[in-house]
From TrEMBL:
Name this protein carries in UniProt: Transposase
InterPro entries: Transposase_8_domain (IPR052546)
Length: 80
């Protein structure tokens, strides 16, 4: 068991942690155990910041640009 971390959690930092948890495929309890977070604190942060699955997906899309288009800009081909 890892030693528990004690620090303030910013919204941005928690979004990053929540995204990592979802990408890991682990349950919240298992992820928190591996990372040294209390799973009750994890749920408290989730409630405090009110992060929804839709919001998490939007954050992930804005943070991880497509390799084919690293600028993240979309180009529309108009033929009219």
């Amino acid at each position: 068991m890892m030693q528990r971390r004690k620090h303030m959690m910013s919204r941005e930092k928690f979004i990053s942690i929540l995204f990592r948890q979802q990408q890991s495929g682990l349950s919240i309890a298992d992820f928190c155990e591996n990372e040294g977070y209390s799973h009750s604190r994890f749920y408290l942060w989730k409630q405090k910041y009110g992060i929804t699955e839709r919001e998490l997906l939007a954050e992930a899309v804005s943070v991880e640009p497509d390799n084919k288009n690293p600028s993240g800009l979309e180009y529309i081909n108009r033929t009219t």
